[in-house]
Amino acid sequence: MHKNGLTTQVLHSDRRQPIEHGAVHKPMHPSSQYVYGDARELAAVFQGKAGYTYSRQGTPTTGALEAKITLIEEGLGSVTFASGMAALTAVFTTLLKGGDHLISSQYVFGNTTSLLGTLADLGVEISYVDATDAAQVRAALRPNTRMVFTETIANPGTQIADLRGMGEFCREQGLVYLVDNTMTSPSLFRPRDVGASLVMNSLSKYIAGHGHALGGSITDTGLYDWSNYPNIAEPYRKGQPTGWGLLQIKKKGLRDMGGTLAAEPAHRIAIGAETLALRMQKHCSNALALARFLETHRGVAKVHYPGMPGHAQHARATELFGGRYGGLMGIELAEGIDCFDFLNRLHIVLLATHLGDTRSLALPAAHTIYYEMGPERRKQMGISDSFIRLSVGIEDEADLIHDFDQALQASMPR
C-alpha cells in the first residue's frame, strides 16, 4: 500500500477532518471556554471523553496542530505547550519525583541545563554523561533511575548522541527515553526509530520555521509500557496504559501548570509545518556548502558540523539522518580575530538568539546563551570564547558564502 510522504501528509491533514465551507486549514479558535447544551455531556468531557472545556487544557486549534505533530513523528499522540522549555518542564516535573534519578547528556541547551539545575534543587538526582558513548550512559545506571534524556544534535557543539545505543539500553532497563528532536526535526529523523518513549520538539524552530511563533510539543511514540512506571498517579491509570503517560503530562502540565499554547501561534506553527521538508533541504544544503567553505578559510580555526568528514560523529550522523545534517553549525575563529568585530561586519546574517529561522542567525555563544554557565562548564561542553553559533537559513548559497568571506577578511589581523 502506498504511503504518502511527510509534506503530502501535512498539507492534507486538516482537510481529512470536516472543516466549514471547504477550507483547507482548520480555523483559529480564540475562545477561552466551550459551552455544552447538556450538563451530562459537559461532565463526561471532564471525566475523560474527548472534547474541550477550558482553553488552558487545549483548543480545537492546538488539537489540529497536535494531530500534525503526531502524524509526522509517527507517534501515538501529542500535547502542545507555549514553548519547548514549557514542554520539557512538563515532562520532568510530572513524571519525576524527589529521589528519582535522571541520566542526561552533558551536551544540552543552556536553558535546559538551568532547568535541570532547578530539578536537582527539588530533589531529583541527575547524572551528566557523554551521550556520544552509550557505555557511559549504561555506567550511570542506579536502582532509582527513571529516565534518560538527550538531544539529537547538541546545541551548539553539534555532538551526536549514540541515539540507537541509548534506546537499546532504555528498552533493556525499562526506562523512559526522552529525546529532544528540535535540531533535526521529524524531516531528518524520527526518534521512534531508535526506541524513544517521548519526543520533544521546540516548534518555534524548524517546524514553525519563520521566527514568528513560540511553541513546544511532547509526542508519545507508543513504545513505552506505562503500566510499569511507578510515578503515574491513580487518577490517570484508566483505559489503555499506552495513554497514561501523555494524559498525566497533559493534565499536570497544562491544567495544573498552565504552560498552554495559545490559538494564534498554534495556527501559525501549523501553517509553517507545511513547508518543513522543503525548507530543511535548503537549510541542509546551505549549511554543508558553508561548512566546506569555512573549513578552508584562514580566518576560521575549526568548524563544528556533522556533515564534515572530520566531525567525530560524522558516520553516525550519516546513518541516522540519511545524509543530511541540519542547519546548526559552530565555528571557532582564528587567533587574533575579535568575535564581536567579526559579527558586526556581517550584512546578511542576523545577530539573534534563535534557531531554525528561514534567515541565517549568529551569536557569540560563550558571551550570550552560555554566559551563566561559567568557563568550567563551557569548557566541558567544548565552547571556547571565540565560538560562534550559526543557524544557517535558506538564503542563496553564494550570498551567504560572500557575507562570511567579506566579514572574515575584514576582521583578520593586518
Please tell me about this protein's structure.
This protein is of the alpha/beta class. It has 15 helices and 12 strands. The chain has a 7-stranded mixed sheet, sandwiched between helices. Strands 8-9-12-11-10 form a 5-stranded mixed sheet. The longest helix is centred in the last third of the chain and has 20 residues. The radius of gyration is 22 Å and the shape is globular. The model has no long low-confidence stretch (mean pLDDT 94).
Continuous helix count: 15
Mean of pLDDT: 94
| Overall SS class | alpha/beta
Q: Which band does the percent of strand residues land in? A: 5-15%
Identify the strand order in the major beta sheet. Answer: 1-7-6-5-4-2-3
Terminal Cα span: 64 Å
Order of helices and strands: HHHEHEHEHEHEHEEHHHEHEHEEHEH
Using DSSP, what is the number of strands?
Answer: 12
* Main beta-sheet strand count, sense and barrel state: 7 strands, mixed
Shape: globular
**Low-confidence parts, pLDDT < 50 over ≥5 residues?**
none
Q: How much helical structure, as a percent, in the residues?
A: 25-40%
Alpha carbon gyration radius:
22 Å
Overview in brief:
The protein is an alpha/beta fold. The protein contains 15 helices and twelve strands.
What labels describe this entry?
414 residues, alpha/beta
Mind sketching the topology for me?
Elements: H1 6-13, H2 39-46, H3 60-73, E1 77-81, H4 84-95, E2 101-105, H5 110-121, E3 125-129, H6 134-139, E4 145-151, H7 163-173, E5 176-180, H8 185-188, E6 198-202, E7 216-220, H9 244-256, H10 263-272, H11 276-295, E8 300-304, H12 314-321, E9 328-333, H13 339-344, E10 350-351, E11 361-364, H14 375-380, E12 387-391, H15 397-411
Parallel strand pairs: 2-3, 2-4, 4-5, 5-6, 10-11
Antiparallel strand pairs: 1-7, 6-7, 8-9, 9-12, 11-12
